[in-house]
Design brief:
Blueprint lengths: L1 H7 L6 E4 L5 H7 L4 H7 L7 H7 L15 E6 L7 H13 L4 E6 L10 H17 L13
Parallel strand pairs: 1-2, 2-3
């Protein structure tokens, strides 16, 4: 839902995605048992499966995300619901698009990251304080330095 919102408005100044699926096609390949859930929850799924999965795969349409909204991605490496690879894949797509993001991988973290609750909250609050409260600009994404 966060990715959909970022594709539909430029009013969001900062975003956090925790254990967020970024590729519904890969999710189905990794967890075929999800097919019945998709069929039950996604309108028009049976008639247009590929299009519906692509529409729910922001890794395929990062260019539609508001390019001025920095995104904090947080993913557990022991998440069986959303493969940690999806965090890396989304980060790579954002990097190629020069979209501001930060990826934090929690070693041994499960889907909702209960093992890292305090750190998760601290990172989230710091992220929003930096880009909402303080209004800091994102650092240059162009290659620079000595």
């Amino acid at each position: 839902m966060t990715y959909l919102a970022l594709a539909r408005t430029d009013r969001i100044k900062a975003a956090v995605v925790r254990a967020g699926a970024s590729d519904a096609i890969a999710s189905l390949r990794e967890r075929p048992e999800m097919e019945k859930n998709y069929a039950a929850l996604i309108p028009n799924y049976a008639g247009n499966k590929e299009a519906e999965l692509r529409a729910r795969s922001p890794v395929l349409w990062v260019d539609k995300l508001n390019p001025k909204t920095p995104i904090l991605l947080m993913q557990g490496t022991a998440d069986w619901r959303v493969s940690p690879e999806q965090g890396f894949t989304m980060a790579e797509a954002l990097y190629r698009a020069k979209h501001p993001f930060r990826l934090v991988m929690f070693e041994g973290g499960s889907h909702s990251l209960p093992e890292f609750r305090n750190e998760l909250y601290r990172l989230t609050i710091d992220w929003f304080n930096t880009y909402l409260r303080d209004g800091k600009p994102w650092p240059s994404l162009e290659k620079h330095g000595d």
